[in-house]
Amino acid sequence: MKTIGIIGAMPSELADLRAVLPYAKQETHAGYKFYSCEYKGKRIVNVCCGVAKVNAALCAQVLIDRMGAEVILNAGIAGGMNHCVHVCDIVIANEVMSHDVNPEFLVKYPPHCAVYPCDQALQERTAQICDRLGIRHHKGRIVSGEAFISSNEIKADICARMSPLAVDMESSAVGQCAYRNQVPFLSIRCISDNADDAGDMTSDEFEKVAAKQVADVVLALVEESF
């Protein structure tokens, strides 16, 4: 039975998922509460890692080492970083990277890589699910950093340097951990705001709707892909 790990940064990003999954066994490791259950012939382990990259990386490593995750899905909300990406659209990452770390240092020193690819088969299956559910979606780069982006100026700088479709605070860390452990990985994000001067207000308004949409996609992916 394949073990699929699902990481969300905030409880709201996992609430709709947990409402569907059956009763879960709880274990605590490194201060994180991991919930495991059998669902549709798979073992699902979901965990709320907390915000930002250190939390995400530490939690992902424990998920692999202690909970035996063979696949990791990072699910949640994100800010839109391209004019073609609208609130409530899904962004399927083809690769993830940090926007607040000089990539030259990551290439020069371990892990000698600054851009972490997402599993191609999972990307394609997620896109097919979005098509079937009638959800507008995009495939491209997601970048991560240690701050919630709600500034036109900062957004413009990140876009000029990295051309992402979405920005969050965890995907690159989970992707780097999965890369170093050679575990298939995918980040799936629903856009809750446009990462601009109105980002705080827009995110508050659409967070629950976006979280529900990404949960629907992740559950379908779990059911149909493993």
From TrEMBL:
Entry's Gene Ontology BP terms: L-methionine salvage from methylthioadenosine; L-methionine salvage from S-adenosylmethionine; nucleoside catabolic process
UniProt EC number: 3.2.2.9
CDD domains: MTAN
One GO CC annotation: cytosol
Protein name (Swiss-Prot/TrEMBL): adenosylhomocysteine nucleosidase
Domain of life assignment: Bacteria
UniProt keyword GTP-binding, yes or no: no
Class of the enzyme per the UniProt entry, highest EC level: hydrolase
One annotated GO molecular function: methylthioadenosine nucleosidase activity
InterPro entries named in the record: MTA_SAH_Nsdase, Nucleoside_phosphorylase_d, Nucleoside_phosphorylase_sf
Transmembrane parts of this sequence: none
Pathway(s) per entry: Amino-acid biosynthesis; L-methionine biosynthesis via salvage pathway; S-methyl-5-thio-alpha-D-ribose 1-phosphate from S-methyl-5'-thioadenosine (hydrolase route): step 1/2
Protein keywords: Amino-acid biosynthesis, Glycosidase, Hydrolase, Methionine biosynthesis
